[in-house]
Design goal:
The chain has about 350 residues and is mainly alpha-helical. It has one domain. It is built from 12 helices and 7 strands. Strands 5-6-7 form a 3-stranded antiparallel sheet. Helix 1 packs antiparallel against helix 2 and helix 2 packs antiparallel against helix 3. It is elongated and about 70 Å long. About 30% of the residues are buried.
Length: about 350
C-alpha cells in the first residue's frame, strides 16, 4: 500500500501504510508489550526520589494508558470475536484501538512540553510556595485536562474520523500507522539547539573533557573536571558548558539516535515514540534550559535538585555559588556523578 498523508488544518497527522501486510494480531501486541515493560522498567529504576512535577505525573499516566491499551488488545486477541455491551469486537478493533492511541499521542508533544517547560521555569528557582497537596492536585488536574482535550480533538477531526472508518474495508492483516509531525519538529529543534550550543562552547567543553578524571565518591563513580575557566567569560556561558556535559553524559545515546532518525528520515509511529524513556530525556532537556535561563535565581537546596532522577545538576552550580571560607583545591573544579 502506498504512503498516504493524513492531516488536519494544522498538519498534525502523518499516516503511513506498511508496504506489506502488517500482522497486527501478533506484532501490535508484541510492540505494546515491549513498550509497557520499558515504561514500568524506567519508572522503577529511578536512582533517587523525584520531586513532584508535571512531567512526573504525565509519565505515570502514559505508562498506565499503555498498560490499559495492552490489556484491551490482549483480551480481544485471546477471545478473537465476542460481544460486549452490545458491541461486537474482532481483530479489527486491535488495530482501531492502537491507531486511536497513535493519533492521540501524535498531538500530545506541544501541549505537554509547553506545560512542563512553564512548570520548570516557574519552580526551578524555588520561588513557588504551593503546598505539596495543592501542587499535586494541580498537576493531576493538568494531566487530566490535557488527556481529555487531546482525545476529544482526535475523535473530532474529520480526517481522523474518515481514517478510522476506512478500517471497515481494510483487511485485518493490515493496519495504518500514524506518526507525529510535532515530535519530528521537536526533535529537529532539540538537535539544532544542542548543535548550536556545542559549537558555541566547543573550546571550553573540550578543555573540560581533557581535564576529566574518574574517581569514587560515596561509593559512586564520579567524574571530576579540574580546569581554570577564563575569568573574562560570563558565568552564564560557563554554566552552559557544564549543563551540556551533564546532559550529554547521560543522554548521548538518545541524541545520537535522534540524529540518525532525522538523517535517515525514519518515521516512527506515535504510539511507539511517546514513551517514558523519551519523556525523561525531554525532561532533562527542559530542566537544563530552565536552569540556564534562571541561573541567577537557583537556590542550592537538596529538594531543588530532585526533579531529574537521572542527571545531577547541582554540580553545575556549586563552583559558582561556593561562598564558603575555605577555597576549593583547584579553581573551577566540577564533580559530576555518573
Amino acid at each position: 500500500m502506498a504512503a498516504r498523508l493524513c492531516e488536519n488544518g494544522s498538519g498534525q497527522y502523518h499516516c503511513t501504510h506498511a508496504s506489506r501486510p502488517l500482522e497486527i494480531s501478533y506484532m501490535l501486541v508484541l510492540i505494546m508489550l515491549g513498550k509497557v515493560f520499558l515504561d514500568f522498567f524506567m519508572l522503577q529504576i529511578k536512582p533517587k526520589p523525584v520531586k513532584v512535577s508535571f512531567m512526573g505525573y504525565f509519565c505515570i499516566s502514559v505508562a498506565l494508558l499503555d498498560f490499559t491499551v495492552l490489556l484491551s488488545i490482549c483480551f480481544i486477541f485471546c477471545f478473537e470475536d465476542f460481544a460486549l455491551w452490545g458491541v461486537r469486537f474482532t481483530e479489527y478493533h486491535i488495530c482501531l484501538f492502537t491507531q486511536i492511541t497513535s493519533l492521540t499521542y501524535g498531538i500530545l508533544p506541544y501541549p505537554v512540553y509547553l506545560v512542563a517547560a512553564l512548570d520548570y521555569y516557574t519552580t526551578v528557582s524555588q520561588t513557588s510556595q504551593f503546598p505539596t497537596r495543592a501542587r499535586r492536585l494541580l498537576y493531576v488536574f493538568a494531566v487530566a485536562v490535557i488527556w481529555i482535550s487531546v482525545v476529544f480533538c482526535t475523535l473530532q477531526v474529520p480526517a481522523v474520523s474518515e481514517d478510522l472508518e476506512m478500517h471497515d474495508s481494510v483487511s485485518p492483516a493490515q493496519c495504518p500507522l500514524s506518526g507525529s509531525l510535532q515530535s519530528y519538529s521537536v526533535s529537529c529543534a532539540m538537535v539544532l539547539l544542542l548543535g548550536t550550543a556545542l559549537l558555541a562552547r566547543c573550546k571550553e567543553v573540550t578543555t573540560m573533557l581533557l581535564s576529566a578524571r574518574l574517581l569514587s565518591f560515596s561509593s559512586q563513580p564520579v567524574l571530576m573536571f579540574s580546569y581554570v575557566p577564563n575569568s573574562n567569560t560570563c558565568l552564564k556561558w560557563q554554566l552552559l558548558s557544564r549543563l551540556l556535559l551533564c546532559f550529554l553524559g547521560t543522554w548521548a545515546p538518545f541524541v545520537v539516535l535522534q540524529v540518525v532518525v532525522l538523517l535517515l528520515g525514519v518515521q516512527i509511529p506515535a504510539y511507539v515514540e511517546m514513551n517514558v524513556p523519551w519523556l525523561y530525556f525531554i525532561n532533562s532537556f527542559l530542566l537544563a534550559a530552565a536552569y540556564w535561563c534562571r541561573c541567577h535565581d537557583v537556590e542550592l537546596t537538596e529538594e531543588g535538585w530532585c526533579t531529574d532522577p537521572f542527571v545531577s545538576w547541582k554540580f553545575c552550580f556549586m563552583p559558582f555559588n561556593n561562598e564558603s571560607t575555605e577555597p576549593a583545591d583547584k579553581p573551577g573544579t566540577v564533580i559530576v556523578i555518573c
